[in-house]
Inverse folding.
């Protein structure tokens, strides 16, 4: 399986009513050098200024971003190129990140290359350490900046650490 770590930035809590502003993806392997970054023009007039502020962009800047259909088609092509096996979506908050990526794929390309499921990095860590109160975020090497490629890379580094140091049985 080809694990692809994903992180999204949005201007609100749900897709459709609000927009995915940008997202990043990293193929999880030892190099972490296969990345994808997309900036998407808003699909709705609605946005929450505080949510948008997390991304570091203004509303005016986002209005000049790329067409979502083009970005999602390019992302699907990138996944096909880098995933020599079945692509597996993983993130540190898959309930949120998956919701946007899945909705955008189905809405703009009519198919989701990841299928119908996703994995949660935090849950993997909690299971490995057998403690639901623990958090994996100290395992990141790349600083968490809210640039989605940086954040996806940091999470991918944590996943590699789970394999190397915690004995997680996983194949990249």
């Amino acid at each position: 399986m080809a694990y692809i770590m994903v992180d999204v930035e949005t201007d609100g809590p749900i897709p459709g009513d609000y927009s995915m502003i940008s997202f990043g993806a990293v193929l999880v392997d030892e190099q972490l050098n296969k990345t994808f970054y997309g900036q998407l023009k808003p699909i709705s007039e609605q946005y929450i200024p505080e949510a948008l502020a997390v991304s570091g962009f203004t509303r005016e800047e986002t209005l000049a971003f790329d067409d979502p259909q083009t970005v999602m088609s390019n992302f699907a092509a990138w996944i096909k190129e880098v995933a020599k096996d079945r692509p597996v979506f993983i993130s540190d908050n898959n309930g949120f990140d998956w919701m946007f990526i899945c909705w955008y794929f189905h809405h703009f390309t009519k198919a989701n290359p990841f299928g119908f499921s996703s994995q949660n990095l935090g849950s993997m860590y909690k299971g490995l350490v057998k403690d639901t109160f623990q958090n994996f975020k100290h395992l990141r090497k790349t600083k968490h900046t809210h640039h989605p490629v940086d954040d996806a890379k940091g999470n991918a580094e944590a996943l590699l650490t789970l394999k190397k140091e915690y004995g997680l049985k996983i194949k990249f």
